[in-house]
Model the fold of this input.
Amino acid sequence: MSEKPWIDCPGDYVDSLLANFAGNGEPNDLLKFFTDSFKHRLLRNDDIKLQLISDNVSFSRPELTNKLCVLRGMVQDFRESELFVLDYSLVPEGSDGISRRSTAFLRDNTVIPEGVHMDQGSVKYADRLSINVVPVPGENEWVVECLKSNFKVVESELNMDYDKSPKMRKCVENTSDAASQVEVKFYEDESDIAINSVYHFYGVFENRHIDNQNNDMQQCGNEDPMDESGSLPRVIFHAIFAKPVFSAVVEDVFAITSDEKIEASCQVVSGTRPELIGALSRVFRGDAIAAEWTLLHLISSVYKRADLMPIGNLSLNIINCSHQTVQELVFFLRSIVPSLVLFTMTVDSLNNSRLIPQKDVDSGKLHSGLLQLPPGASLVIDETRMEPGQLNEQGMRNLTALTTLVQSQKVLYDYKFQTVEIMTNYNVLVLSSTKSLIKSPGVTWKLTPNVDLSVTCDPGTLKLPGIRESLTVAKFLPYEVPPEMSQVAQKFFVEERQQNKTYTTDEFHHLLNVARLVSLSFGCTKLSPDCWEKALRITSLGSESRESN
Done:
């Protein structure tokens, strides 16, 4: 008998809970009893490290099946809610047998052994949500090391079944969407789950095989990824509950702003700033202002919206970039940001790439696009290889999608007969030789590298854990403008309008956002005169750069 049956044999543990459940009320009472029992066990045993899986090729490994573990992933799409049999009685054949209760909780279907039948009058149904979960797009390898302090991380490797089956290998290679998705049955309130957000799902993998004739998961044309028995593998994860993941670096991002930790949090940010600016300056061959703008860009985040327009983000276009600069910057950024996706923008990639997620209305499946990312992801667009050419209809749609993303922080999902607005919160960085084709209301900075400076940035020489933590902490620090600084800002706006009639409120709001980011980059939660002056200085330089291009 296992010492912890709720981990090693969760199905048997649920059966024991059901047998001891005294209530006969609403089905939701029983469902809550199940989920709360697992939660309380985990709270009382917080020293236990569960297996965590974040790479879908490991999902059907036998040692993980029917054991409590954690699935880390991004919600890619919602399926329809479904009814399942939460409670039913099994009655032995004949009149003298004693019935026993059973459940399809943590199971795809009811299990009825031979010699018994289901008492139809005892059946009670409940709802569960069916969702698609995928690995976090663009997540960098070092994130796994951060997770090892709390979980037994299952190392990424090709699934054994894929290695053995050429048909399965071919299916995976040809259908990246289908291969990367796991069907998750979620038992708690569906309002707690948001599309594109990252979660740790606590639950159980169930490997089932379904008859090929009744298969609704065929993805490989005429070749079915069948096993030796002639049936199709279907991996389902039953999520008892989920915890949202706001950061891959800081376990509790809300605790860092508590009265006890706010001072230490500010010191983390201010302490790593010189090292980070120095590293970015070396990447940009001595251009310290480019380094400053990049730091502000990295800690920017949409913290609210006004009439659906994002407030707090800072898109950045650095021009006069060489391809070598792009490579070095992307290499460095991958070492400090948890999730980064690179899009090399050319006429061919615009014409032939799927950037916008598309819904197949016939199958009901959402096919991911490159712009379907989790909140806080970095999207780097490399325009240095862009050459003259003709954009087709797809290319124009993709260019419009990128412009919409940069200007409004939203992506319009293609549902064939309509578009669905999905609000985003990405850090969009455009690197180009000349001014970007993407119309951006953010900052454009012309890189002025020192051609004689040959020192490059080696991430291995930096205190990377501290830098990663500071970039996360800075996004969540509180911020306020003291009354005296509010008066200074208002006075500046009035005087600027008197001297320059073309100065707009949008430009002023941009300045206020830059001042906020400058303050946070120094670990300051209040706007100070020094930070205000620095914001004025680099904003004016940014304006000059825009005017000269």
